[in-house]
Write a structure and sequence with these properties.
The complex is a heterodimer.
Chain A lengths: L4 E4 L3 H13 L3 E6 L7 H5 L2 E4 L12 H10 L4 E3 L9 H9 L3 E2 L4 H8 L1 H10 L7 E3 L13 H11 L3 E5 L9 E3 L5 H16 L4 E5 L5 E9 L5 E13 L2 E7 L6 H17 L4 E9 L5 E7 L6 H8 L3 H9 L16 E8 L1 E2 L5 E2 L2 E2 L11 E5 L6 E2 L6 E9 L2 H11 L12 H9 L1 H4 L7 H4 L11 H13 L26 E2 L1
Parallel strand pairs in A: 1-2, 1-4, 2-3, 4-5
Antiparallel strand pairs in A: 6-9, 7-8, 7-9, 10-11, 10-13, 11-12, 12-15, 13-14, 15-21, 16-17, 18-20, 19-21
Chain B lengths: L1 E6 L2 E11 L2 E6 L2 E10 L3 E5 L4 E7 L2 E4 L2 E6 L14 E5 L4 E6 L6 E2 L4 E7 L2 E6 L4 E6 L6 E2 L4 E7 L4 H11 L1
Antiparallel strand pairs in B: 1-2, 1-8, 2-3, 3-4, 4-5, 5-6, 6-7, 7-8, 9-16, 10-12, 10-15, 11-14, 12-13, 14-16
The chains are: A alpha+beta, B mainly beta.
């Protein structure tokens, strides 16, 4: 069925991103927006828009019944959920279909399976996909029942191999956690972990897991149509994270050689075939230095970082999503899908990396646009828009494509200066520090990069030259009043500078 | 003419020689500089030092100077220092958000670093902690309420003037 009109059940940069493809495909779009988003690009770019009012998220972007009613009223054929919000909500997907429209995404069954941590891991095990080796004490054992024999646990530990991690089953916050580096240390580590777990949680049950010392987060982009064709679009490495949120992603990964890459991709395809998947998906793996990797989870939607795949593979993933939703057979051949060059994405956030990544708010006076060839800015903000506390602090994604990694880094360092987002405190300088740092340049991108190299990522003091240029800029810029003394009046609100009398953690 | 600016919160002194017809000259750190404006838009200027050119974008106190983020204010526009009467503390919200939890009640004694209120803003939680020992004298909000930035959340009567509170203030400036 040909789709003529899509309601986008999302906002910001991803809504704009989807609209761009719809325009190219001659599909009309309906945007949703709230009272405070009237002047945002996603509201203005759509062919039609609908004001959701000023309620909480549950009444606006998360109100599935209301969104479906709006889509029907405005005669949409399909709903694109973007990422986040309702994108992985199986009930919503079913309700959209029940209302006679197309949900642009996988089947509700796939979403349910992958949304369930235990069921998905069981399914993966049944498909022969490697999970992080471990031993989990059954609920019937331990507390209430007989505590497990330490020697039995030790035997399980030997099976997993060392180093391994002992974790409290009731766990959290590192309590009752021990890294065991050799078998001879197992029993003493177990006893101390159990004591700590008993003390902290009143429950001394533990689980054992292989300890991955230097993990990387590597994921495979997959795509399947309704005609039983399953494709992959290679990997993305997203190891650079802060507060468990990705900040820099790239493809190809420096860690993968051709063989491991192919092996990982084939496992991804084994999964999509094994669960009869349809649409765009991402299979996340945790990758160990020795080349082994384990299934982590599958995201049944378009990822935030999808543009880097689009750039190296020369495809439009949103277009493929719409084609699959229309029931088309994808005119692709796996051998023709190639990784060309290197792409990097950075996420610009309204936050202060030098003050515990606390979010900032304000009005964007000057955003800027990348002038560099091969650079792409995906954003839902333009000059004059206000960054509020009501939504995610991500301002934009800046993506560059170049012939190799070194050139991509160099290009990113140019392009990132072209989008200053003046008016809010951003993590722009911090991203530059990461890109400049020797470990990043050497490809030592591990999931604990930000913590491990914290000392190298501290702000550097301004050079004498920087200060001279700053003085010149200040004196030469046309000021609203002639007197220098009036310049302090136009201060941009930086909530953290106004912080008084308490501190945040 | 000696002038001062606060650049990235650091006091910088220079001697301005002249500033006319789009050209400025000053002595900073015992070195003489001459810069001239080559082009200007509402939010940016292109500046030359006679040889190299660079780009500056600006918005009030925030500037992007040749790729470097700087904030420039006049020395008089320094951050407002605490003007609170000693002996009591009003705990202000750092930003607009939602109160998730109020962990203390009137009459509670709190110690330095005790969590008082958990707020949520931009999908992240922030714990507001006591900056000194004291007794909670009033709580102005309940869990679930939305608050603006800079509003009084709760009041604490200090038991003693803690030196640690001043230290915390300094830490924030780094």
């Amino acid at each position: 069925m040909k789709i003529n009109k899509i309601l986008i059940a999302n906002r910001g940069e991803i809504a704009v991103r989807i609209m761009k493809t719809c325009r190219e495909m001659g599909i009309k779009t309906i945007a949703l927006y709230t009272e405070m988003e009237q002047d945002l690009p996603h509201t203005l770019l759509a062919d039609e828009n609908y004001n959701l009012g000023a309620g909480a998220l549950a009444e606006t972007y998360l109100n599935s019944a209301r969104i479906i009613a709006i889509a029907r009223e405005l005669a949409a054929d399909a709903i694109h959920p973007g990422y986040g919000f309702l994108s992985e909500n199986a009930d919503f997907a079913e309700a959209v279909s029940a209302a006679g429209m197309i949900f642009i995404g996988p089947s509700a069954a796939s979403m349910r399976l992958m949304g369930d941590k235990i069921a998905s891991k069981n399914k993966m095990a049944a498909l022969g996909v490697a999970l992080i080796p471990g031993f989990h004490q059954a609920p019937s054992q331990g507390q209430g029942g007989q505590p497990l024999d330490p020697l039995l646990l030790e035997k399980e530990g030997d099976k997993i191999g060392y180093p391994l991690l002992i974790k409290a089953s009731a766990g959290g916050g590192g309590k009752g956690m021990r890294i065991v580096r050799r078998g001879s240390e197992f029993i003493s580590a177990l006893e101390s972990a159990q004591r700590e777990a008993q003390h902290a949680f009143g429950d001394d049950r533990v689980l054992l897991e292989k300890y991955i010392e230097n993990p990387r987060h590597i994921e495979i982009q997959v795509f399947s149509d309704t005609h039983g064709q399953h494709f992959h679009f290679f990997e993305r490495e997203c190891s650079i994270q802060r507060r468990h949120q990705k900040v820099i992603e790239e493809t190809p990964s420096v860690a993968l050689g051709p063989e491991t890459r192919e092996k990982m991709a084939q496992i991804a395809l084994q999964i999509t075939r094994g669960i009869d998947y349809v649409g765009a998906g991402t299979i996340e793996f945790i990758y160990d230095t020795d080349g082994s990797f384990y299934f982590l989870e599958m995201n049944t939607r378009l990822q935030v970082e999808h543009p880097i795949t689009e750039m190296v593979c020369g495809i439009d993933l949103v277009q493929l999503q719409i084609q699959v939703a229309q029931g088309e057979k994808l005119n692709l051949c796996q051998e023709d899908i190639q990784q060309i060059g290197h792409a990097i994405e950075v996420r610009l956030y309204a936050e202060d990396p030098d003050n515990e990544f606390l979010p900032s708010v304000g009005k964007i006076a000057y955003r800027g646009s990348p002038q560099t060839i091969g650079a792409r800015l995906d954003t839902g903000l333009q000059d004059g828009n206000t960054v509020t506390i009501h939504f995610d602090p991500m301002l934009a994604k800046l993506i560059v494509h170049a012939t190799d990694r070194q050139q991509a880094i160099a290009k990113m360092l140019i392009a990132i200066d072209e989008v200053p987002f003046l008016g809010v405190v951003t993590n722009r300088d911090y991203l530059k520090r990461i890109l400049h740092s020797p470990p990043f340049q050497a490809g030592d991108t591990l999931t604990h990069f930000v913590e491990k190299y914290a000392a190298e990522l501290l702000p550097r003091p301004l050079s004498t030259d920087d200060i001279a240029k700053s003085i010149a800029s200040y004196l030469l810029k046309t000021r609203p009043a002639t007197s220098v003394t009036s310049a302090g009046s136009g201060r941009v609100p930086n909530v953290w500078q106004q912080l008084e009398g308490f501190r945040n953690i | 003419m000696k002038k001062q600016l606060k650049i990235n919160r650091q006091l910088v002194e220079f001697e301005q020689l002249y500033n006319r017809d789009g050209e400025v000259s000053f002595i900073y750190n015992e070195k003489k500089y001459i810069f001239s404006k080559k082009a200007e838009t509402s939010h940016s200027i292109v500046i030359s030092n006679g040889g190299e050119k660079f780009f500056t974008a600006f918005s009030a106190e925030h500037l992007l100077v040749d790729g470097v983020d700087v904030s420039i204010t006049l020395p008089t526009a320094t951050r407002k220092m605490s003007t609170k009467s000693s002996g009591s503390n009003n705990m202000l919200s750092p930003m607009p958000g939602k109160i998730l939890k109020v962990l203390v009640k009137v009459g509670d004694e709190v110690q330095l670093g005790d969590p008082l209120i958990v707020m949520e803003a931009m999908k992240m939680e922030h714990t507001i902690k006591a900056i000194g020992a004291g007794v909670v004298t009033s709580v102005h909000y309940f869990a679930g309420e939305l608050v603006d930035g800079q509003v009084d959340l709760l009041d604490i009567q200090e038991l003693e003037q803690p030196a640690a509170a001043e230290k915390t203030d300094k830490e924030k400036e780094c």
